[in-house]
Amino acid sequence: NGADAAPDFTLVDQNGEEHTLSAYKGKVVFLNFWTTWCGYCVEEMPDIQDLYEEYGRNEEDVVFLAVASPAGD
C-alpha cells in the first residue's frame, strides 16, 4: 500500500512481559499513549476497553497496546 512501516520498539507490560511491535506484523495495532493524571485519558478508557473486548482481547487480528505514564512522571 506504499505506507511506511512504523519503527520497531519493545515495551514491557505490568506483568514484566515484553511486547515488540514487529511481533504483531499483519495485525492492526491500536496504540494508545496516556497518563494516569489526564482526565480525558481516563475518560476514554471504558470505550477502549469495549473495543478491546469487541475485537478479540488481543487474540485475533487487532492488538491493543496502551502506554501509560503514572502520576508525577
What does it look like?
The chain is α+β, with helices and mostly antiparallel strands and 73 residues long. The chain contains 1 helix and 4 strands. It has one helix at 39-54; strands at residues 10-12, 18-20, 28-35, 62-69. It starts with 9 loop residues before the first strand and ends with a strand. The model has no long low-confidence stretch (mean pLDDT 89).
Question: Strands, helices and their partners?
Answer:
Layout: E1 10-12, E2 18-20, E3 28-35, H1 39-54, E4 62-69
Parallel strand pairs: 3-4
Antiparallel strand pairs: 1-2
Q: Please bin the fraction of helical residues.
A: 10-25%
Tell me the fraction of residues in β-strands, as a range: 25-35%
Separate helix tally: 1
Rg: 13 Å
Total beta strands: 4
Mean pLDDT: 89
Q: Would you identify the regions where 5 or more consecutive residues have pLDDT less than 50?
A: none
What best-fitting shape do the alpha-carbon axes yield? globular
Describe the largest sheet.
2 strands, antiparallel
Which class best fits the helix and strand makeup?
Answer: alpha+beta
Order of helices and strands: EEEHE
Give, in spatial order, the strands making up the sheet with the most strands. 1-2
Quick take:
The chain is an alpha+beta fold and 73 residues long.
Describe the structure using short key phrases.
73 residues, alpha+beta, two-stranded antiparallel sheet, two-stranded parallel sheet
